[in-house]
């Protein structure tokens, strides 16, 4: 009977120790990964920032908030934006940021990821409204840099560093796409006409220069005539040449009335 009583007491102690360890050990020891930091609160008051590695806490007195220091990604949902020239477009973007001060990220703002996401959406609409459609399509890097600077400045008190902001897609209405296509076609036609007219002008200029040269050097006309005959003789067809002196044609011109 005594052995049975001792065994019972031993089992009670073992069960008590197991329960104690299962309850208190998870509260006393926490393991922080290399990219994590633990913000420790003691009785609700900030105590310190610990990690990485093993940290020791006072059970039921210390509370810890884990903060991930890796670069996080926020997909800014598609926003309807009115540009400076009153064109409605749908734009979405991606924001890359990371926590540089775990204490501020936990204490200064509630749910820093959600707060940064909302700020990115608001800033995206605000900044894109300051640009015209052509600038939005052509100066993407400039717009990305400006959005990043604004978000980074506003999230700095939260201990957050915005790494990059990238505007992904700019979706235009179908009517605007057709208008831009017509504009591009008209621009190509305009450039083609200008190039054609410029070619005609240059050709006419060269002909005038050639005429002035021939007028000053009559022998040049004779050489040009002989060159033309040589080019024609290279063909397979048979031609008959009847060279006439240029002065011979002067007699057929009508005389001016005095």
Summarize the structure.
The chain has helices at residues 2-28, 102-107, 112-128, 133-138, 140-155, 174-216, 218-233, and strands at residues 29-32, 36-42, 45-50, 53-56, 62-68, 72-82, 88-99, 160-171.
Per CATH, the superfamily of the domain at 72-172 is: Band 7 domain
CATH topology of the domain at 72-172: Tetrahydropterin Synthase, Chain A
Enumerate how many helices there are, as a single number.
7
CATH architecture of the domain at 72-172: 2-Layer Sandwich
Q: How many extended strands?
A: 8
Low-confidence stretches: none
- Order of strands, main sheet, comes to 3-2-5
Give the class from helix and strand content and strand pairing: alpha+beta
What portion of the residues fall into strands of 2 or more residues? Answer: 15-25%
Q: What is the CATH level 1 assignment of the domain at 72-172? A: Alpha Beta
Judging from the principal axes of the Cα atoms, what is the shape? rod-shaped
Order of helices and strands: HEEEEEEEHHHHEHH
Q: Main beta sheet: strand number and arrangement? A: 3 strands, antiparallel
Domain Band: 27-184
Membrane topology: Single-pass membrane protein
Keywords: Membrane, Transmembrane, Transmembrane helix
InterPro entries: Band-7_stomatin-like, Band_7, Band_7/SPFH_dom_sf, Stomatin_HflK_fam
